[in-house]
Write a structure and sequence with these properties.
By secondary structure, chain A is mainly alpha-helical. Chain A has 25 helices and no strands. In chain B, strand 8 and strand 9 form a beta hairpin. Classes of the chains: A mainly alpha, B alpha/beta.
Chain lengths: 549, 243
């Protein structure tokens, strides 16, 4: 036990996860001098978003908790929070499990020290728990607060809250580590490398979509997203009863907030499942470490690599693709972002809400600015990516090499911009064309949509690049820190949102105020071009300073 | 000619300068061995010369080009880092091809250079493998090939012999001699004093950020006036006096 604590302490002191996060937000001493007001503004924005998200969760749980009281399920909001917390923790932790448990640099050197395999395994599991239990708390705490607000506080509730917060993440993390251990043990991870990781992640996605299907099918039947309790009683009660059957341990956990026996039973169950999974992981840890250390089986490239001369621009663009392909977390993120419209359609189809969406679309089609609305929706989807805003960070320690290459800063920026355009721009043009054909609008509108799409994606991308060049995360050890958990990605999304607001002002507000559509589109094109020029200059200037740091 | 004048670099939060007013001049055709204890400032000096670090004060110029950040300067240098990093999913050949594109090396020339260098460094067969499968020594070999690929006028190597097998180490020494004989400048740091003694035409000894000596081995011996002292004993006496 002492050794486990020592190893956890070592990880904490060695990686300083909290202070690293604070530094990423630009509050280190050196950054403070540079751009304090910008950093404060961005942090305030982030906090507002966080509070907004918590409030939204709280409001949703409040609706279900109140509804539960009406239908004799006083634990309903809490139950849904447990489900969201459990699935969310599983999905978010999955891509880190293999890294934290088996592949992290410190594991490699620790495994050579005289530490028992089970001690090391337990310390890594504890680290995983420390990293992901705050996420579980974030997703479930609003429900606890809401339930306390509605039902009042008593000793059982307080004890249950504390126990559930502590034990709640056990089951999802145990299951995820179990899957991770089995994937490595089966040899799947070694045989097909990142493909297997993406495959397992896709399985989780499918699970999530299926869950959404069960939860939202009711909403389609009622035809409303508001809490229409009368309409909800008939159709939602059977759904929740079914859900409670499927997730009976979580239902028991939620009931534990209201009385002690379910609390004890659910805690024992969680501990039993957790212990079982931990047992398997600990037992297989040594062998799995050895499997991982023996590396992914690779194939020798057949035939020669082309020695054809390419321009530096083309070479750098290909390099961007190599960097993305190097980590399954990057592949998953980029592919997911590019396929958002298709994923959404898939979710709607599976959840049975596609009919409702079609009705909504019919309403949109009657608007005088229908094409503009379609353009803006797809522009929003195509700009909500982290391709550029984490592009430099993805390079990690290899970014230092860029400082050695005999190239100007603008060549790096251009390559990254073009790569972004190649991915997001192409996808957007395909979606635009598809949407216009499906809606019988004809492709003539592409005359203004295509250039505006390219200009706006390039403009947003250049600002996103500037953000990442300003403060790239070069020292990540887990790929998630370079992309998914990189604050630059979040700041980049804010830029994309800001651009959509600006574009909407020109494309929708101006025509509604009587300005001709042609003029408003031309103005939007002009403003996008100006933004691109400005953004490009900012990106090049940030790149220059990053490359000469 | 490489000229460093009064180079100073101080890291944030450190009282002592990592490199303190260091001045050096190394001519074409010279092999300059940079020696010093751990933490003496060797890597910091090298990182300033290759443009990875900006000196707090002082200047660096090579063949009249004063800006280490300029494209012209970067084209003239080849750098082999002490811990080379690569894009792991590339094969060795893809890495070299990528660098050839960035340095705009002609197709015929790049094939010739890659073939010739990989053969000499005994890495031809492994060039088709992903870099992630390379051992430490293979990475070191690839880094040396990459540094020499574009035929730089100034070759800078930070601990290049670490991890190399005896044959590759011998080949590298031969390569460096040939390279310098063609009028190019070689600047390398090492802890292996025998290598420095055999290979270098001039030496620089640095300790605690200050350059204690710069010149030939013979001059160092005569300055210390003790006949046939080995480089090891001269190095130890110099750095101990400083400590």
């Amino acid at each position: 036990m002492k050794s486990v604590l020592l190893l956890i302490k070592g990880f904490w002191v060695g990686t300083k996860p909290l202070s690293s996060l604070v530094e990423r937000f630009g509050f280190s001493r050196s950054k403070r001098r540079r751009s304090r007001p910008v950093m404060i503004a961005l942090t305030v924005l982030l906090l507002v978003m966080l509070i907004y998200f918590l409030a939204m969760l709280g409001f949703t749980y409040w609706g279900y908790q109140t509804f539960g009281l009406l239908v004799g399920k006083p634990h309903l909001g809490l139950f849904l929070a447990m489900v969201v917390g459990c699935i969310g923790t599983m999905i978010f932790s999955f891509s880190s499990v293999s890294n934290v448990l088996y592949r992290a640099d410190d594991v490699r050197f620790l495994s050579a020290l005289p530490i028992a395999s089970h001690t090391l395994a337990l310390s890594r599991l504890a680290i995983l728990y420390i990293l992901y239990s705050p996420l579980y708390a974030f997703m479930t705490l609003p429900a606890v607060v809401v339930a306390a607000w509605i039902g009042g506080l008593d000793a059982t509730f307080v004890i249950a809250s504390l126990i559930t917060l502590l034990i709640g993440p056990f089951v999802p993390l145990a299951l995820v580590t179990l899957v991770g251990a089995l994937v490595i043990r089966s040899g799947l991870a070694q045989r097909s490398g990142s493909t297997s990781k993406v495959l397992v992640m896709l399985l989780f996605m499918l699970f999530f979509i299926a869950l959404s299907a069960m939860m939202t099918r009711f909403l389609d039947e009622s035809g409303s997203l508001a809490f229409d309790y009368q309409a909800m009683v008939g159709s939602m009660v059977p759904l929740f009863t079914r859900l409670e059957r499927i997730f009976s341990p979580l239902s028991l956990q939620a009931k534990g907030y209201l009385s002690l026996p379910p609390l004890l039973l659910s805690s024992l169950l969680s501990l039993a499942v957790g212990t079982l999974a931990v047992g398997v992981v600990v037992k297989t840890f040594g062998q799995n470490l050895s499997r991982v250390a023996s590396g992914t089986k690779w194939k020798r490239a057949k035939g020669g690599v082309t020695m054809r001369r390419r321009s530096p621009l083309s070479a750098l663009m290909r390099r961007e693709a190599v960097v993305i392909k190097s980590q399954s977390a990057f592949i998953f993120e980029v592919v997911g972002e590019l396929l958002i419209p298709l994923i959404l359609i898939g979710v709607w189809a599976v959840t049975g809400t596609i009919g409702e969406m079609a009705t909504l679309l019919e309403t949109v089609l009657t608007l005088p600015v229908v094409e503009e609305v379609i353009f803006l929706i797809l522009a929003l989807v195509s700009n909500m990516t982290m391709i550029s805003s984490t592009s430099v960070s993805r390079q990690g320690p290899n970014f230092a090499q860029d400082r050695l290459y005999p190239l100007e800063a603008n060549q790096f920026v251009r390559a990254k911009l073009l790569f972004h355009l190649l991915l997001a721009g192409t996808a957007n043009l395909l979606y635009l064309s598809g949407a216009l054909i499906l809606l019988n609008r004809g492709l003539a509108s592409l005359i203004w949509m295509a250039p505006l799409s390219i200009l706006s994606i390039a403009a947003v991308s250049s600002f996103q690049l500037a953000i990442d060049y300003h403060n790239p995360n070069e020292e990540w050890t887990l790929a998630q820190h370079a992309m998914k958990s990189n604050p630059n990605g979040l700041f980049g999304l804010l830029v994309a949102l800001a651009w959509i607001v600006v574009a909407a002002l020109f494309l929708i507000v101006l025509p509604l105020l009587g300005v001709s559509p042609l003029l408003s589109r031309l103005l939007a094109l002009l403003i996008a071009a100006l933004c691109l020029l400005f953004g490009y200059r900012v990106a090049v200037s940030q790149a220059s300073s990053a490359l000469s740091r | 000619m490489l000229e460093c004048a009064k180079l100073t670099k101080r890291y944030e939060g450190k009282e002592r300068a990592a490199v303190d007013s260091l001045s050096l001049t190394i001519g074409g055709g010279e092999i300059f061995g940079f020696l010093g204890p751990n933490g003496a400032g060797k890597s910091t000096t090298i990182r300033m010369i290759v443009g990875l670090l900006v000196p707090d004060s002082g200047s660096i110029s090579f063949r009249g080009v004063a800006s280490t950040r300029s494209v012209e300067y970067k084209k003239m240098i080849g750098y082999c880092a002490d811990e080379p990093t690569f894009y792991e999913k590339m094969t060795g050949r893809e890495h070299l091809s990528f660098l050839s594109d960035l340095y705009q090396i002609e197709e015929s020339r790049r094939s010739l250079r890659i073939g010739e260098l990989s053969e000499r460094m005994l890495l031809t067969r492994e060039l088709s493998d992903p870099i992630s499968s390379y051992s430490h020594g293979m990475r070191q070999k690839l880094s040396v090939i990459a540094a020499l690929l574009h035929e730089p006028k100034l070759l800078i190597l930070d601990e290049p012999m670490v991890g190399l097998d005896p044959k590759a180490s011998f080949t590298l020494k031969t390569l460096l001699k040939e390279y310098a004989a063609a009028g190019n400048t070689v600047f390398f740091s090492t802890h292996v004093l025998e290598v420095a003694e055999q290979l270098c035409t001039t030496l620089g000894i640095i300790s605690e950020g200050a350059l204690l000596y710069s010149g030939s081995f013979a001059d160092l011996r005569s300055q210390n006036g003790e006949g046939q002292q080995s480089l090891e004993s001269l190095f130890l006496s110099l750095t101990e006096v400083q400590a």
